[in-house]
Amino acid sequence: xxxxxxxxxxxxxxxxxxxxxxxxxxxxxxxxxxxxxxxxxxxxxxxxxxxxxxxxxxxxxxxxxxxxxxxxxxxxxxxx
Length: 80
What we know:
The protein is mainly alpha-helical. It has helices at 2-21, 38-52, 56-66, 69-78; strands at 25-26, 29-30. The chain has one domain (2-78).
């Protein structure tokens, strides 16, 4: 169990470092994620709400309009 836990931690660090190098992380949040289920849509909506200081309804509207957390944040920052 201990070796498995250590292995998991190392693999998590490698994947996190890779995502940072690929530019898929903004601040401390993974903004380039597949919105494949309701839980991830809610998580993406919350990220947009926090980043842009807007209501959940407006954040979900932006998420559905732009299709990704990164695009919603970037486009809304350009076009307030």
